[in-house]
Batch of 2 targets.
Target 1
Amino acid sequence: MKIAIFCGSSAGHSPQFVESTKVLGNYLARNGIDVVYGGGNVGLMGVIADSVLAAGGRVYGVIPEDLKNKEIAHPNLTDLKVVEDMHQRKAAMANMADAFVALPGGPGTLEEIFEAWTWAQLGHHAKPCAFYNMNGFYDSLKAMIDTMSTSGFIKPEYAQMLIHVDTPEALLSAMSVYQAPKNKWAK
């Protein structure tokens, strides 16, 4: 199994973000899960790659040419694919991955996981999408998604299709039993 991980090119202010990312990476590698990510060697991106590699796992990076130097492409990955732009990055990661997970990050992280979630709603894939809620990072976002649902902008089944967990064990457990709802426009 390959999990696409979206996360910050920064490490954040709390050391807990780095520590929890290391724990997750180690756990994924020990359980034979490969990681697909943005290919950078900085922030939580570098931490997830380094922790998976240190535990003997495989990491596949996908990085746009213009970010190769800015995000400092990781030199020790199992494989690094350089693409033209962010659209190609997301498409390549989506094709390679069996699931999608957002760790803490900024607007790029949200944009990536929201696109994967939207594709799932539309029936473009039936892969699980998860928010790894370390240190309560995504509590407010979960509340906003619940508000979108109770306000009638998201059907409950599409809000509930998102996995919200805060441990590696819960993540893999939820993904192992995930069943995609019927796509949004299916009759």
Note: Residues 2-175 form a domain with the Rossmann fold fold (CATH 3.40.50.450).
Target 2
Amino acid sequence: MLEERIRMHFHESAQLKQQAAALLAEPLAQAIAALANALANGGRVLACGNGGSAADAQHFAAELVGRFERERPELAAVALSTDSSILTAIGNDYGFDQVFARQVRALGQPGDVLLAISTSGNSPNVVEAVRAAQERDMSVIGLSGKGGGQLTALLRDVDVHLCVPHDRTARIQELHLLMIHCICDGVDWTLMGEPENGQ
């Protein structure tokens, strides 16, 4: 029975990826264009999320600052979940809802991009980070699921909402990682053209 349960996870994940491809390809292309434009013009990407989404934000920043699949110049990205002193100082003095927003207001500039990750779309500190980014005239790329939650109403026409059509957190996180890889590949392709090996 355990093996059947494992097969169910694989099947559900594969089925969701096929379903989401048609729905998310266009907004993913819009997100890639926004990021590539910001980075090409000297902007930076700030990324935030909680728990597994914090890990995704760090993964994304690492792919940009380091590299994804081919050599290229470093790209400016910062994950806002990595500095324990900043997180605990802001959390202690202002509340956990402000741990990302204060960093966005401190580091973000007009033309920068915030990658805001919340599987429910309702994480209070991610929602506050989005508001702070909009105050700073930054564009926002929101990764969510479960119908998008508060992010749906908060994001503007200039922002991009990548909402996974599923209610299960594990499936949503799997799609978020795939979308992050699509974005990294798309940014490289946009800034550098086709790779020499054609992949």
Note: The CA atoms of residues 1 and 7 lie 10 Å apart.
